[in-house]
Amino acid sequence: MNAIEFRSMKGGERRIVVTTCYDHWSAKVLNTADVDALLVGDSVAMVMHGHDSTIPATVDMMALHTGAVSRGAPDKFVIADMPFLSVRRGIGPALDAVEALLRAGAEAVKIEGVAGHEDIVRHIVESGVPVMGHLGMTPQSVHQFGGYRVQGRRTDAATRLVEDAQTLEACGCFALVLECVPSALATRVTAQLQIPTIGIGAGADVDGQVLVLHDLAGFSPDFQPRFARAFRSGAHLLHEAVTAFANAVRSGEFPTDDETYS
Ligand code: KIV
Known about the structure:
α2 (24-30) crosses α4, α4 (59-72) packs parallel to α5 and α5 (91-104) crosses α6. By secondary structure, the chain is α/β, with parallel strands linked by helices. It is globular and about 70 Å long. It contains eleven helices and eight strands.
């Protein structure tokens, strides 16, 4: 999969599936899973580093995780998030960030919002780097939104989001993430764009879905937003494995002779 193939899945039979991925061993597992792309999201700051927002993610942090993922999943299309403010300081610093992420192994970048940085999105695309847009509840703007709230409920906000989506398409984005927006609005945007929409908390009438890996695998038992389904209980499995190890050590059952060098 690459950005061109990803884009061509718009409106097709097969829905697009994306998950986040932040580290080498899960990338190795996902390299053979039936997903269309791996997103090294800036949610890495929350999921892997314990911060309470994505704002602490830096270009260095994103590049470190992008490298680990791309080495683990050589067969997957890897998209990396441009972190907080990295597209707001002008074209030079934005290109430095893009360069760091692509040299680390990303094949595309994702950028939140568009107002005020349309020229930068266009310039990155014209520089040969596929860009995925991201509208709706863009977590880097959490303080402006006053929390993680559904966006685009009011008519003016919905109209602005549709216009922003059209702007991103005109700037050359190959796909658009819609996060936490009413499903009717996501349906409207999806119908108006030629590029695929990937929803997270945006209902079913989009071209694909993205979820945070740790939410879908049940590794975030204390955090399950309404839109995230835990398809398995990863935390439970991990807990059981470590408990079994501890019990085997304490009972003297581990290691056996077969697990010991003579
Ligand atoms: O950082 C992230 O994980 C994301 C998605 C979930 C869309 O941007």
